Amino acid sequence: MPGVQVLILAAGAGSRFRAAGGGDKLQAILPGPSELTVLQATFRLWRGLGLPCLAVVSDSAPWRAALARQEGLAVLSLPTTGMGDSLAAAVRRTPEASGWLVALGDMPFVQPATARQLLELHHPGRIVVPTYQGRRGHPVLFGRNFAAALGELTGDEGAKRLLREGSVLEREIADAGIHRDIDTPADLENTRQLTRELPHFAVLPTEENCFWGHALMNKIESMLDYLKTRELQLTTAESCTAGKVVGLLSEIPGSGSCIESGYVVYSPEAKQRLLGVRPETIERHNLTSEEVAREMAAGALRDSPAQVAIANTGLAGPGGADGIPQGTVCFAWGYRVGDDIVLYSETQHFSGDREAVQLAAARHSLGAVVPYHQRLERESEENAR
């Protein structure tokens, strides 16, 4: 049976936002450098879960459907804007689903980890509701047994009756984003503070993050073009980023011509067996060290036809180890020059939870490929003089 379906309800008129002179709230630009609209950020949040997503939009705002398709989401466009009507139509549209995770189009501040915690509690006969400081929020996960009741909803009330009468399991979650929607221009402005309070969101909606920032995605595409014009291929050796570097590259069409291979090596044994990291290096310098990262990069290039390697090792969390704080990541970049391998390395410290650190580290891994290669070329020219 197919799994849980994400339903993003984005058909509402946003009358309070309009009445305050703010226009279409879903088209409003979020504070900060990302230049993403509220709805675009919401779409990317849920798309990032890897679950099928259906955007429910209004016929009166065709730009929403166009945006959803642009972001790779399925679309259900309706003549009505009531939440009950939207939810009922969406459930009827996806009868094969094992459940429905219902999200709102004006709530891009929910942390992905929240959704994962709800999904762990999924049951056909259960409604799972997140709470923060004892108060319910969104998204809400409905089990398959509620299909008939959901399919009969009408008007603006949504599923409030089911939440009063159904078998509800509340899950307390450390995520203020489950309460933060945008009803007025003041709400939008107040999200500046929220982005400082929630480290996960502080990374995601800026150009510092490949999933959320168009600017940085363009930078990654430029990096791939740089490699292509020089006929360079890339290999990766990831530890704390757990494959996210290659995952980000795969977001760009045609990136496969530049990706030769990728390793994900968590344990010391895997680093030694697959990449040739020496046990004495680990013992002397710690797993989280530039020395280990450099041997990982060199090892990735050793048995690969690629000319460029990215390696990282660190502590994404939760918590630090051996006196090294959470968020510490050591990087290395390797470049094949004839029979030699030239290595560069550095250590960075990132704030936020585990996912925020992983994403920031993946972004940094990719962002330094071109600058270090250009440095290599300059050094080679200077040495040739």
UniProtKB/TrEMBL annotation:
Taxonomic lineage: Bacteria, Pseudomonadati, Pseudomonadota, Gammaproteobacteria, Pseudomonadales
UniProt-recorded name of the protein: PncC family amidohydrolase
InterPro entries reported for this sequence: CinA-like_C, CinA_C, MobA-like_NTP_Trfase, Nucleotide-diphossugar_trans
Organism of this sequence: Ectopseudomonas oleovorans
Span of domain CinA C-terminal: 221-367
The MobA-like NTP transferase domain, residue ranges: 6-165
Keyword DNA repair: no
Signal peptide positions on this chain: none
MF annotations from Gene Ontology: hydrolase activity; nucleotidyltransferase activity
Assigned keywords, A-Z: Hydrolase, Magnesium
UniProt key word DNA damage: no
